[in-house]
Amino acid sequence: MNDTLARGLKDVVLDTTESSYIDGERGILLYRGYNIHDLAANSSFEEVTYLLLHGDLPTEEELNSFKKRLKAQRGLPKQVIEVIRLVQNAHPMDVLRTGVSALSAFDPDTEDMSREANLRKAERLTAQVPTIVAAHERVRRGLEPLEPRDDLDHAANWLYMMTGQTPSPEAVEAMDLDFLLHAEHGANASAFAARVTASTLSDMHSAITTAIGTLKGPLHGGAAEAVMKMALEIGTPERAAEYIRQRLDRGERIMGFGHRVYRAEDPRARHMRERSRILGAKLGHEEWYKLLQVVEQEMQRYQSRGIYVNVDFYAGSVYHLLGIPEDMFVPIFAIGRVPGWCIEILEQYDNNMLIRPLLKYVGPMNQKYVPLHERKN
Prior knowledge:
- By secondary structure, this protein is an all-alpha fold.
- It has 16 helices and 3 strands.
- The chain has a 3-stranded antiparallel sheet with strand order 1-2-3.
- Strand 2 and strand 3 form a beta hairpin.
- The radius of gyration is 22 Å and the shape is globular.
- It starts with 19 loop residues before the first strand and ends in a 27-residue tail after the last helix.
């Protein structure tokens, strides 16, 4: 038995995949062989979701049919809405986790483990997760959840269900891009957790619930929220440089920099950087983009150590500009990541082996058992 430690399973290759390719040294990300830069410039979240779930880019007819299926499955059972009402005071990620778990009781394919049924569940979950997030946001503000609109695409419909207003093209473009950039990213912590659950041959809703619980942790999904809190604390671009220097002098971490995989700039970061700039200029609030630019400049000294800006650094400013509450930032990540989680789960089912790593025992050995009545404090 090889008892060499690989803490955090760092650099351990779990299995093969066809869903995404990451070259962390060169800052490359591919979805099923397609470069993220090409997809960000030319594609949509629905098109990328089809690519991930079905293996290749759709024809126009296939994409239209896929969009119709997603639109038809956005609604939630009234019982799930009642569950959301019951837990409305919880954190949005807790509500989302509970909502997805509740959905399993009403999905017609819950117990069907065929690939065809699991693909149907993957499409339904992609369509329903945004509805859970939006319904909770309205319920906790004392408003009634809105029915989905079948004349709006994925990102636009989610923004409408959140606000009750038809969103601007700039807002739709920003959220569609954000969902696209977060759609898949290999064996990250939440995808790995989903695979562990799937490896027991538990159902897809259970595996997605596991993933949501894992994403909630601040070391995985919380960077965008932490960056925006920092930006609000700084307040103005003029204060940014000194603020960052003081934090670095105290040995404190600057969120939004560094990545477990990338030793170059996260290839997704450039697209959120540009979206932050465009949206800020359009809405007359360029201060957040300018502030973050100063922070990024101050952090350039750490690039020699492989610490670059990541996708979450500018994402929080985009959400803030759209008026989205900070505790919704991680659920937004989840909305985008559902297709990636689902394809990871499907790949696990297709070539399954129970995931069961070992632990190296370092405790005492051969302890003598002392009967209870003989033990002393």
